[in-house]
Amino acid sequence: MVSFVCACGETIRKPKVRNHLQQRHCEYLSCVDCNETFYGEDYSTHNKCISEAEKYMGKLYKPGTASTEGSKQDRWQASVMEVLENYQGPLRGYVDTLVGYDNIPRKEKAFNNFIKNSLKLHNPSEIRKLWELVQSAAPATPEGASKKRSAEEEAWGGWVEEIDRALKRRRTAEKSMPWKQLRDEVVTRYLKKAGKAGSKREDMNDVMLSKIPKAYLSKSANKVSLPSDKQ
């Protein structure tokens, strides 16, 4: 997991950056590994950085199997962190603790044991809810990938219909997504299927957000949810 050195001199792992910036109001961060500097929210896109081997071996570095496996875990961890950071609910206390770990298991059995040992949580129902939460960040299964391909082949259906489609494809019981993730997915669909020559993503981002029905918005979280009567 990437870590940053803040302008105030403190070193922070990515999941804790947002709270740190809200408290300290620092102007910029620098990545510990690559030394790149980020201003404002720019750090949020920096999910994976070079390894120690890459850093010091340069062009001589050759990734191996371990590196590939590591990259899978890195991608999983980055996706999970995005979901956890946007969660607002009754398990928020456990979620806040969970974001401090950079080794969250990808398999349910291992995850359950991890939660019991690390969070000292033994309630099966709450453990299940945490698993469903992190699973919403998991890559699509072959069946899910097939559905995604089918969705990509569908004609553009209009902003609200595309928002509904994206939310319905979620694998969790609660059909919701962080608004930034939803925006990026729907705008990408628009640019592929209906975008006119010269359409800019930045402009379409604003258009898409203006099309989200108010009934879909959460008052307590940065997410968009499909109303129960549409699920």
From TrEMBL:
Cellular location(s): Nucleus
PROSITE patterns membership: ZF_C2HC_LYAR
UniProtKB keywords: Metal-binding, Nucleus, Repeat, Zinc, Zinc-finger
Molecular function terms, GO-annotated: DNA binding; zinc ion binding
Recorded GO CC terms: nucleolus
GO biological process: negative regulation of transcription by RNA polymerase II; rRNA processing
InterPro entries: LYAR, Znf_C2H2_LYAR, Znf_C2H2_sf
Name of protein: Zinc finger C2H2 LYAR-type domain-containing protein
Native organism: Perkinsus chesapeaki
